[in-house]
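Box 4.2: Ligand-aware structure prediction
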Amino acid sequence: MTTHSRRPTLVLVYQRTTLPWVFESAERAGIDLVLVPRPDEDVSEKRLPPAVVDVVRLDVESDPAGALAALRRRYEEDPFQGIVTLYDPAVPFVAETAELLGLPGIGREAARSAQDKRVMRERLAAAGLHTPGFVRLDDPADWAAAAHLAFPVVVKPAQGFSSLGVTKADTPQSLKGVVDEVWQTCASKLGRVDGLVVEEYLDGPEFAVESLAHGGDVRILTIGYKGDPQGPHFEEGVYRAPAALPDAVRDAILREVTAAHRALGITDGPTHTELRLRGGGTPYLLEMGARIGGSGVSHYIASAVTGIDLAAQALRIAAGITPEPLGAGSMPMPVAAAANYIVPCHGSGRITAIRGLDELRNDPRVDHVVQMLFPGDVVRPYPDFTGYPAFVLSRHADTSEAEAFHRYLDQAVRVDYAHDTDPQGQA
Ligand code: ADP
């Protein structure tokens, strides 16, 4: 099938169709999408999500050269205006394709500095931004090079995502074992490991920041609370925005995140930043993704809190269309609170039931229950990451209501297993 529409058209790489926001935003923005589905997703051409006019199957991860050649041929036959992804590992491929086809994008260099945590740490440190002591390891045998850091430290893959393999080591004596374990986990789950980063543990609560850049002008839309995970593994938990923060801390976050865009060379498009407030007040970046976060969850949060259609703005920028003006002021005034609750696995084994989810689908506070694991699926114990059982996305008058709702969910939702290996799962 070839598209002959005169609407702007974007190639959207590796977006799961079960996460609806970017498709809905494309429709609202009048932008057509050519979807490159995830290889493991069976996309029916009869029931396509909104705005999708065509489906092209490409293996961007195993055969990037073949995928690029196919996109080039398509572009020559039927030009599209841009290419975009919300999937972190595909950010460099998308940036490279855009650069080679002369389409809008952040460029290969900026994409690599956002996607590779070694490059990110080096660039942030060179720009004088807050950086924990860190060491890059290209080989697990070199682990001793990181033994001089202040412990505890965190060991993570240079090009990981979803906290895969990210592990805390409390003492220099445990470092070798943790480095070997992270290397093995990543080799088996990612297929290859380019290297690791070992960095000092940043003690303090965690926040996510959703931003939008255009022509070098960086606007921060929301800052949300992400919990205070202590490790040794860092399963994601909650996201509640807007975060209640003293003005001075909020301003420090705005400065740090804006400067990080400059340091990494990200001038255009959405970013999703995660940071911790070391000692409770000083923002230290954990990572900055040059994409909408959480496969679109960041759009849900930012648009509910600000009323701004983040994904539509991001798609316009990717298509070379000027985004709508965001108004004056350092940050948009929140119009509501929004939250994501990631149902914890709390155990491992074969799932027999996920209790409490069905009731939530009719709860007026809940906009979406996105279920990823089902009865029959097997959750393997950490560090072998299987995925999250479900997201519960909700909207509230203010953040304290969101907090109360999450306390309720802690009791109301539970995963049952046929064979529990983790005592927490037997609660
Ligand atoms: P990923 O890209 O796989 O999500 P991150 O670097 O964001 O990897 O790490 C995942 C999580 O691990 C973070 O959200 C944070 O909770 C924790 N973490 C990572 N690095 C550190 C650190 N230096 N100090 C404290 N916690 C960390």
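In the box above, the bound molecule is adenosine-5'-diphosphate. The pocket of adenosine-5'-diphosphate is lined by residues 132, 154, 156, 160-164, 166, 199, 201-202, 206, 229, 234, 274, 276, 286-287 (CB under 6 Å).
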